[in-house]
Design brief:
Blueprint (H helix, E strand, L loop, with lengths): L1 H7 L8 H14 L1 H4 L3 H7 L7 H8 L3 H4 L2 H15 L23 E5 L17 E5 L4 E5 L10 E5 L2 E5 L11 E5 L4 E5 L10 E5 L2 E5 L11 E5 L4 E5 L10 E5 L2 E5 L11 E5 L4 E5 L10 E5 L2 E5 L11 E5 L4 E5 L10 E5 L2 E8 L4 E9 L4 E5 L10 E5 L5
Antiparallel strand pairs: 1-2, 1-24, 2-3, 4-5, 5-6, 6-7, 8-9, 9-10, 10-11, 12-13, 13-14, 14-15, 16-17, 17-18, 18-19, 20-21, 21-22, 22-23
Helix pairs in contact: 5-7
Length: about 400
Amino acid sequence: PDVLELTSRDELHVKLEEQVYEAALAWVRYDREQREACLPELLSRIRLPLCRPQFLTDRVQQDDLVRSCHKCRDLVDEAKDYHLMPERRRPLLAFKTRPRCCTSIAGLIYAVGGLNSAANFYAGDSLNVVEVFDPVANHWEKCQPMTTARSRVGVAVVNGLLYAIGGYDGQWRLSTVEVYNPETDSWSRAGSMNSKRSAMGTVVLDGQIYVCGGYDGTSSLNSVEAYSPETDKWTSVTPMSSNRSAAGVTVFEGRIFVSGGHDGLQIFNSVEYYNPHTASWHSVASMSNKRCRHGAASLGSKLFVCGGYDGSAFLSVAEVYNSASDQWYLLVPMNTRRSRVSLVTTGGRLYAVGGYDGQSNLSSVEMYDPESNRWTFVAPMVCHEGGVGVGCVPLMAI
């Protein structure tokens, strides 16, 4: 029937694959007697590996329709194996792990904190300024500032809210956290981290915020902590194998990847990832370039890093990681050398925001289009120069 064709389509506009599952099950239940026989084929069209592990365990696996069908149970097991055992991923049909193209709908990019203009990168003052970029309109505008000035700040987006985490206020490394509601254009306080840290990596995985490494004012850190928005509490997580400040951190294939960074003595090209289901860290292939203060983001089936500093030069070079081959490949370089650059994904494209080119702080922004394999300049920031924290707030699916 038409519903099988519909659930197969890349063009479905949904925020989460879980919505496709819920809609399909509701369709079956509406006329269970006639439609239950379609369920195995229907479930095979749904991209279950893209659902959150908790959803697979608590919702899908417990459903009476699924439990009473052997083929359906096999499909759920396959999806759970995808999360638990990365080595079993390769044989999966490609479409099952390809996000719906609702990801091509651009969200709003927020640039948070950072430094003001200064001839010397290290002399800039920390800012509380926040501005937002609409990629469709190619336009930046100012919004409500934070209560605290923060450079080298961590930024994360959960449930449509934007969190500004830690950072450096010009005098102290911070453990404090504040949260921005775009609907009300207002900031409020959230629970503080257990450690003070700036220049850490900040990501969201399974509805929790993770911060990895950073600098506490004395030394680079290997510690990791996770924040639950439901409890407003931070808890310690298994530490990384290396102390890493100014590393590139992003979520890729359901795991947290940490690339490069420095420990105060050396700059790394090594890469490790955190598996949340085993609470363990594992090494993968090293980048071609050692780098810190670089940008990292995932897009589609690849992980990207760009820019940074290798100890002697400010970099424009970009690389891409393929997990199937466990290899890094050089990508076309950015137009500008950018250290302390933020990289963010939205609308199926990458945006490299701000940074420092070795002489001055940058307000410029470059966009990478994987289809044309080119970096092009978009509208520059209007309020910021230097190392901003960046987060993307997705537009709600309509």
